[in-house]
Amino acid sequence: MIDLRFDHVSKRYRIRQEDATHHSGWLNKMRSRLGPGKDFWALRDVNFEVTRGETLGIIGHNGSGKSTILKLLANITTPTKGEITVCGRIAALLEVASGFHPELTGRENIFLHGSIIGMRRREIHAKLNRIIDFAEIRPFIDLPVKRYSSGMFVRLGFSIAAHLEPEILLLDEVLAVGDMTFQRKCVDRILELSRSGMTIIFISHDLAAVERLCERAILLERGQVAGEGPVSALTAQYLTRVQPSTEEQPTHSAGDVKIASTQFFDESGRASLQFRTGYPLRARIDYEALKEVSPAVFRLQFFGLDDHLHCEFVSGLDSMPLTLAPGPGAIEFLCDEIALQPGIYHMDVTAERADGSALDEKRRCALIHVGQGKQVHGTFYAPHTWRAVATGVRSSDEQPAGLR
Amino acid sequence: MQNVSTSMAQTTALDARSTKVIRPPAFNLGTTLRHIREFSDYTDLFLTLSMHRIKVRYKQSVLGIAWAVLQPVSLMLIYIAIFSIVSQMPSDGLPYAVFVFAALLPWTYFSTAVSAATTSLVAHNQMVTKVYFPREILPLSYVVVGVFDFIIATTVLAGLMIYYHVAVSFVIVWAIPILLVETMFVAALSILFSAILVRFRDLGFAMPLILQLWMFATPVVYPLSKVPAKFRGWYVLNPMVGVVEGFRHVVLQRMSPDLPSLRISFLISAVLLVFSYAYFKHKEATMADII
Asked: The dihedral of CA A130, A136, A142, A148: what is its sign?
């Protein structure tokens, strides 16, 4: 049974050059407002189907047309060509707080927001208590929402939408909100809805999140479907497409040392950009020194796609200082168990002097994907071992605090 | 890609769930009827939103509900000062205060509802770009607020009429169809102007001026009888003429409304409402792209 179908859908946006300087004067303005603008096709001939009960992921980097698809599905805008068939009640969980009014109380906002996203008053009445409890804001429910913390705001918004029980649910990066515990609760709720047979469309650039929720995904690229299939099969394609070319990256070089290339190797020793949490990662940095530099330091940084620095490793800080002899050379970063959470990371590689002045810098030189490896519940993974302890006389003192 | 499109041709039959097809915007009568049916599905939102508009306004302000009364009352005092004390404006034999206030009620309803509704889509662009609902709900919710304020302000009119011993007769029930005609006109302009403002913000700057001129083109501060007969034919094409003058006739003067001018008001409002709604729904499809 098909719940949702995109049939040769294209969407064109008109870009009007309103702030162009040569369009001064009201007559020119009028002409540019009414005349044909520059066309931009956000989607071109997109076809796909979603069967009932399926959770489909739509991945693609910024500007690939993801949010246009979501807007079309949510009926916020209409296609320029083609046809979209939606079978069943559809609800979008876009930016959560958009339908809230700050002066009204939480309770009043539940009714307002609920009816904006398509719930009936009767329905909201019936679910009111469950919504309040899920959002964990019972003590504050009769306060105006302008007094709420941003976390409470987001929880309330998600809670309303999560209880809407549409037949088709649209999700857009919602998992990026709230604290960790609430995120987990959201994921659980989505999985629960998915198991109950709801059709879900999940739009994201977070491959790991898509992998967690969807069995099938489509990859969008410049407004067209570039691939379709299980998430794991699209990952490689997504990563190679996203891969920035090194020539375009801004590099700062003092001239004495040049970073020639950076390569990554996975657990089996092959050059790869795919890794798993808790498994080995090896990075090899090839450089060329024009004259001797001593001491030198290499810096390897892992950034999330949101440019948040996840971790940084610096050579020569905890071991002996490096001396770079003139000519080509290489240095390796070895990690037996990478502790990164599943996700996509940008890499920065920097060579610098001990005083911190940069010798060479390769920003965003690679994009790696960390997939599901060893189980992580909570924020991070750490290399560790377990051992059995013989229970002796002083057992209670020796037992680690977290072990029970 | 190939097999996707062939399988699409085969699976044409979906199932019993409500099926919606989203197509490029088209302009025809069938879609307009579908839009009306869709609007009726959203009556809960329409009512909730209108109720919240009223609530929010009175929550945010100190004087609260008194504002519904304060605006027409202060206008009345200004017009008494100008047209009754400074110059002598005829008022069909009625005390000028009642004469002008009875006209200010339907006028204030018109002007506040239309000006608030005009900016409604632009002011709530967050909602327009994030969630779908029939967009006409936004401007129309301000019409409900206007009706609410109107009802509050009638208490002042009743007080004035008692104070000046103005008698009432059964013709006052004419006030209901007159207000229905006005509401049609207000609704038509509200959805039309709000859709235009999305494309042309100039209308926002022009609105205060338009409403100011419009008021003097309507018999609010002066009686219809003072308009020279040779201009009347054009003058009554303003739908607010039949409404305001008619309201004053049936409430204060125990006279039936001037039917020819009221009929013109009704016809213009009805035609404009149909046109505005069709125009609005046509523009609605791409509103979120340009707002």
From this structure: negative
As a whole number of angstroms, the distance between CA A206 and CA B102 comes to 63
Place of tokens 């890794």: A275
Q: What b/e readout covers A10-34, taking b as 16+ CB neighbours within 10 angstroms?
A: bbbbeebeeeeeebeeeeeeeebee
B15 closest CB neighbour out of A71, A87, A118 = A87
Chain A residues closer than 8 Å to B17 by CB: 87-89, 167
Q: Which tops the pLDDT comparison, B118 or B35?
A: B118
- A111-146 confidence digits (pLDDT tens): 888 887 777 888 889 999 998 998 888 999 898 888
Q: Is B37 in CB contact (< 8 Å) with chain A? A: no
Check CB contact of B286 with chain A, cutoff 8 Å: yes
Domain A246-371, architecture per CATH: Distorted Sandwich (2.70)
User: Quick one: pLDDT at residue A400?
Assistant: 53
pLDDT tens for A298-348 read: 889 998 766 788 888 888 766 667 888 888 989 999 998 888 888 778 888
**What residues does each domain of chain A span?**
2-240, 246-371
Q: What's the pLDDT score for residue A35?
A: 63
Please state the ipTM of this predicted complex: 0.72
Chain A, window 134-153: residues with a beta carbon less than 8 angstroms from a chain B beta carbon: 144
Q: CA A247 → CA A260, A350, A363, distances in Å? A: 12, 16, 11
Q: How far apart are CA B150 and CA B165, in angstroms?
A: 22
pTM (2 d.p.): 0.73
The domain over range A2-240 is classified in CATH as 3.30.70.660: no
